[in-house]
Amino acid sequence: MKKLLILFLAAVFLTSCSSSQNKTKTEKTVNPETYSATITSAELKDMLYTYASDEFEGRKTGEPGQKKAIEFIKSHYVANGIPSPISEGDYFQEIPASYFGSGIKDSENVIAYIKGSDKPEEVIVISAHLDHIGIERDGDINNGADDDGSGTVAILEIAEAFKAAEKAGNGPKRTIVFLHVTGEEIGLYGSRYYANEDPIFPLANTVANLNIDMIGRVDPKHEDSGKNYLYLIGSDKLSKELHNVSEEVNKKYFNLEFDYTYNDDNDPNRFYYRSDHYNFAKNNIPVIFYFNGTHADYHRPSDTPDKINYDFLETRSKLIFHTAWEIANREERLKTRLKKY
């Protein structure tokens, strides 16, 4: 009897040890703040002062300044060892002039990605438009620091943060795609081309699109409060889960003021239909459009990098990184409810 008791206790001990070891293996805790800390106001400012400089001539679609913009974006991905999904060294999704019409020249989207470790076939697309409206007739340059230089540099910093996680052995479970689209200002052409003509990753496998269009400024409504905020548009239209994830991430890490004014289906501004997320939403892909609202410098030469709130831009970029992190690493993909357009 005593021998049986000893054997029983030994078995219990070994089972307990094995269970403890398995728990340690399966419940590895990774703190995403380790990687979001690489997103800094100093780096955002340094990049934006170049990207929204006169050298880039307002980044009008198909024009020389826009070509400088895509080379700038590509150089960042090359320097950080973040590959292209198109082919080695080729980050440009070429869009022919015939697709645009109205005298617009050939243009390009820029695409990079980090392959998921566990569910690489499932994709989160983080997007921003790389173009702006060019040069005025009097020669004044529309630098587009907020629109959408702020979104462009935010993606570059977010990509760098995900790359830091991958280097540390904590890359995302799902694939993260960094999509810089052209032709937004003339009709959402770049995102439409990606979604309708040449989706590098199947739309059926695209879990969500987080679209960043103007996140560097403060609009008149929020000037007096001094509190960091963002307008969120579309988060609950196709997936209640996406909306809930977004809210939970914000409450856990940032506590920004989320303003849903422009999310109203009856909003007269119709911003839901006016940025690149819409070409994903039309394909029943859950979206969030991050937006700081319009201001007096919107689509004017006075939209310059000295007017950006870089502390706000840093925190907003970190918020989007953490939201993408959560979507990429949760066990189940977001549930989607179909909506006709």
From TrEMBL:
SUPFAM superfamilies: Zn-dependent exopeptidases (SSF53187). Residues 1-22 form the signal peptide. GO terms for biological process: proteolysis. InterPro entries: EF_Hand_1_Ca_BS (IPR018247), M28_fam (IPR045175), Peptidase_M28 (IPR007484). Keywords: Signal. Pfam families: Peptidase_M28. One of its GO terms (molecular function) is metalloexopeptidase activity. Residues 109-322 form the Peptidase M28 domain. It comes from the Bacteria. This is Peptidase family M28.
